[in-house]
Amino acid sequence: MPNRPIHVLTSVPAGVVYSFYKSNNQNGLPRIIESAGGTLGGYIGLILPDWFDPPRHPGHRSLAHGLAPVATGAAFWYRSLDNWQDHPRQIADQHAYCRATSTDFASTEWHAFAEWVLRLLSGFLAGMGAGYITHVALDLATPRCLPLVC
Known about the structure:
This protein is mainly α. The chain is 76% helix and 0% strand.
């Protein structure tokens, strides 16, 4: 049965790689920031299945590990991800413009902070789903497998 270190070794890189892939229309620092968000998202995604279904005993798998709910959620996430990422990116681009045209220090720093947070969020959204799916895929390969629903 995969334990937490195995999940970390697979889900976090999956979050980074997928967020890097999804940021292919970004360049330079924005792409790096989104990948960093994917790192955090991959980690949170690997925690969520066991947070919803705590592993207090070997048969802990329920709804958050169920094939049907996870497949449905993954399909919804995959179809919606581009729209979810576009909105924070657009606002981040506005903050980047305001930062570039700002004349005072406080305003420049605020816009830089807001831009970075929004780009991290965009990468986080991609990484979290990838981390969650990777966690469940690893659990699928165990002898206990996964329930269909719960």
